[in-house]
Protein: RNA polymerase sigma factor
Amino acid sequence: MTPGKNADSSAQMDPRDEIVTHLKPMRAFALSLTRDVARADDLVQDTVVKAWTNIDKFTVGTNMRAWLFTILRNTFYSERRKAKREVADVDGAMTERMSEKPAHDGRLALTDFRRAFDQLPAEQREALILVGAQGFAYEEAAQMCGCAVGTVKSRANRGRKRLAEMLDMHEDEAMELTDQATVAVISRNSGM
Structure:
């Protein structure tokens, strides 16, 4: 025994100090599980963080290495179970379908639509409201307006075209308005 050293000095050592002595074996074990250097390093780091924050659960005098390896192993298998439940979305297609446009974008687009709609001649607005927003057939709208079916069709088509120009919309562009009546007014399929 070295003079001045207590035979029981290892028992009085802070268990956190011992964690560092097991990093290399932990990394080797993590590498054998993951077969990927980067993932192994992440796994060791996660293990050290968990061990450090839960050091009060470690019983001094027991096998620190076994405790650390158990944490590492459990972390690895927990991540694998979690990964099985997750779906790879490399191109972002699934995420895109899950996202929702903010409501304020719809309100802003609706404000722009109303401003443009108000600039249309009264006959075009009337035709678009009857055929688009109210869902009447062209024949019914023509009867209500007291004019020919072709006149209502022409007014509605000219109104849609003018709205698209004012809103700077192109034919292949999808409508992003949230108000269904507004979408119906601009839609080419309404009233047919």
Q: What stands out?
A: The first helix runs from residue 9 to 12.
